[in-house]
Specification:
Length: 235
């Protein structure tokens, strides 16, 4: 059994989709990050970095329980455990390269673009422009790569496509103000639609819908989500 620590944001959603694609048994454990539950000692024992997603595989290597945190690490762990959605053996270097491109580039810059466009105070136009333009650049790199291709790596659907899908799903927030945020990236629009058509997506989107997560962006939420702005939270 896999214990899946979840909040309805892009990175946990990726893991949810992979779990559904693989048909693995899992228990969803809601972590309300706007209430600060990610900072609780019981969760920090699973992920010292205090972020979702994270999993605990009760049937890990050699039969021992294993914790895995960071969405990319989880995608790799589960795909390697099952031997699925990894492409062919000779796709390995491309798979790792694009997974880490998303993990270290497209994802973080998209996240910062969202933060500075929606959460940061006024008067930070340099930062807003910086992260918005870098998000656009990363989307362009991946869109160019997808020219003439159906999937990011090799000839089949892999965890690289799942990783990209998690953020393409939030393109409207990354590219605030755009009526059709993927119009400038037709190959990524095609990729997103291809993944969306998979039956596992609807099941992944239903994860956590039986739990009411906090949505009010009040002082408590700001302190929980951006603790480095309030050092006393972690003191």
């Amino acid at each position: 059994m896999i214990r899946f620590y979840f909040h309805p944001t892009p990175n946990p959603l990726k893991v949810g989709l992979l779990l559904e694609e693989l048909g693995l048994a899992y228990e969803t454990i809601p972590v309300d990050t706007s209430k600060g539950e990610q900072h609780a000692p019981v969760f920090r024992a699973v992920n010292p970095n205090g972020k979702v997603p994270a999993i605990v595989d009760t049937e890990g290597p050699s039969g021992r329980a294993a914790r895995v945190f960071d969405s990319t690490a989880i995608l790799l762990y589960l795909a390697e455990k099952t031997g699925r959605l990894l492409g062919r053996p000779d796709d390995r270097t491309e798979l790792l390269s694009w997974l880490l491109f998303i993990a270290s580039g497209l994802g973080p810059f998209s996240g910062q673009a969202v933060h500075f466009q929606f959460a940061a105070p006024e008067g930070l136009e340099y930062a807003r422009n910086r992260y918005r333009r870098e998000a656009e650049r990363h989307y362009r790199v991946l869109d160019d790569h997808m020219t003439g291709r159906n999937w990011i790596v090799g000839e089949s659907f892999t965890i690289a496509d799942i990783s990209a899908w998690g953020w393409l799903d939030r393109a409207a927030r990354v590219f605030k103000g755009e009526i059709d945020p993927l119009a400038a990236y037709p190959n990524l629009d095609r990729l997103f639609r291809s993944v969306e058509a998979r039956p596992a997506v609807a099941r992944a989107r239903s994860i956590g819908t039986d739990h009411t997560f906090k949505t009010v962006n009040d002082e408590e939420a700001k302190r929980a989500l951006f603790p480095s702005n309030f050092p006393q939270v972690l003191g």
